[in-house]
């Protein structure tokens, strides 16, 4: 009987219940998006840091908007003579080291991540300095001619949109700074630092972007990874005014950024859950007020207070869980089509959604406390006065 009354209270006002479910679904969907974006962001930052294992990035001392050195800072400027001296440092693998020139082509969509498309000039024959162990999806990852380029998948998509939707692949040509370049390779899956890259010979990049005799960074690959700190100390002693970053330095910088972002996102997620609780609470309070006679009658015929509490809590939990169920297909739509570049995978969303489904029970219970307290305080004699 109590369960029947709970369902009756839910469907007595179908439109109100539907709007409540949609409100909860919107809150859950927003929670999933925030969590998914943060998960993608964290994976991206960690992927970039891990890509520089055993390597040292050297550039002019520059500060990004967040107070941290950017791995691909285009504001850094080093003379080629300085770059050559750095590349002559003892203990490095010269074939896997190179001077580089980074120039943004399209700006970043989020803070602390690489530009949406960035030109990367490097020394031909030293592609491994930047690409490391990355594999090609098609073509080759070596530059043999001045007008050849290698594209990351993100850069290929960018030029596809610039090319009226026609796919950009091997033997396609793209315009960069008024010069036509031939695509000879497309990178496989990679962090955005590489996926967004248009990789070309260093002299070509210097000519296109009018940077003669200068580079932005030098990447050194150390022969013995255990000697990274020794090589770093040697460079710092011989070259003042330069930022010398190892993987550990990048990891510390990334951790401070991620800690700040996680704190901010946690506040947003908590606010979202609070809104969901308030939405359900308001609806259930109104429902209890409308059902005071039924509740009073139940109390008069001997229904225990805990049964009344269970009835109200059940109504609240059902609304919360139905809203969470409705949110799942919406979230999967966004992952597959709407915001696939910024949200985690379907598997990742499902893992978070299962956690939220459990959380929905807690949201329902929290939302039911006040209305349930009102319900159990209904005087049984009150209903009898209306009979």
**Stretches where pLDDT falls below 50 for ≥5 residues?**
64-69
Order of helices and strands: HHEEHEEHEEHEEHEHEEHEHHHHH
Total domain units: 2
Q: Please give the share of residues in helix.
A: 55-70%
How far is the N terminus from the C terminus? 20 Å
Strand content: 15-25%
Radius of gyration: 30 Å
Overall, the morphology is elongated
What's this, in brief?
The protein has 13 helices and 12 strands.
Secondary structure: elements and pairs:
Blueprint lengths: L1 H11 L1 H37 L4 E6 L17 E2 H8 L10 E9 L10 E6 L5 H4 L4 E4 L8 E4 L1 H10 L10 E4 L2 E9 L4 H4 L1 E5 H7 L5 E2 L1 E5 L6 H11 L3 E4 L1 H44 L1 H9 L4 H34 L7 H31 L3 H5 L3
Parallel strand pairs: 4-9, 6-8
Antiparallel strand pairs: 1-11, 1-12, 2-10, 3-4, 3-11, 5-8, 6-9, 7-8
Helix pairs in contact: 1-11, 2-9, 2-11, 2-12, 9-11, 9-12, 11-12
């Amino acid at each position: 009987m109590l369960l029947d009354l709970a369902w009756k209270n839910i469907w007595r006002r179908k439109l109100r219940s539907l709007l409540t479910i949609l409100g909860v679904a919107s809150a859950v969907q927003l929670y999933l998006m925030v969590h998914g974006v943060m998960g993608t962001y964290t994976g991206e930052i960690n992927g970039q840091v891990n890509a520089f294992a055993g390597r040292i990035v050297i550039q002019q001392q520059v500060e990004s908007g967040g107070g941290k050195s950017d791995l691909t800072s285009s504001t850094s400027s080093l003379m080629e003579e300085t770059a050559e001296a750095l590349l002559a440092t003892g203990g490095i693998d010269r074939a896997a080291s190179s001077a580089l020139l980074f120039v943004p082509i399209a700006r970043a969509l989020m803070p602390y991540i690489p530009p949406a498309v960035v030109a990367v000039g490097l020394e031909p024959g030293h592609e491994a300095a930047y690409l490391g162990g990355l594999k090609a999806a098609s073509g080759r990852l070596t530059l043999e001619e001045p007008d050849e380029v290698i594209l990351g998948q993100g850069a290929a998509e960018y030029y596809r949109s610039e090319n009226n939707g026609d796919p950009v692949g091997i033997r396609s040509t793209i315009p960069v700074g008024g010069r036509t370049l031939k695509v000879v390779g497309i990178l496989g899956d990679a962090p955005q630092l590489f996926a967004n890259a248009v990789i070309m010979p260093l002299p070509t990049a210097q000519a296109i972007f009018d940077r003669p005799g200068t580079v932005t960074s030098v990447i050194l690959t150390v022969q013995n990874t255990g000697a990274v700190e020794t090589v770093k100390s040697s460079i710092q002693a011989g070259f003042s005014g330069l930022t010398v970053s190892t993987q550990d330095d990048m990891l510390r910088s990334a951790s401070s950024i991620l800690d700040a972002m996680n704190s901010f996102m946690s506040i947003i997620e908590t606010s979202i859950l609070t809104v969901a609780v308030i939405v359900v609470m308001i609806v259930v309070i109104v429902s209890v007020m409308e059902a005071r006679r039924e509740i009073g009658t139940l109390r008069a015929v001997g229904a225990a207070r805990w049964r009344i509490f269970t009835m109200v809590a059940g109504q609240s939990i059902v609304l919360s869980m139905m809203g969470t169920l409705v949110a799942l297909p919406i979230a999967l739509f966004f992952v597959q089509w709407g915001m696939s570049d910024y949200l985690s995978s379907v598997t990742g969303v499902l893992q978070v959604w299962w956690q939220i489904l459990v959380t929905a029970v807690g949201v329902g219970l929290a939302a039911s406390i006040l209305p349930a307290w009102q319900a159990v305080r209904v005087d049984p004699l009150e209903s009898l006065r209306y009979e």
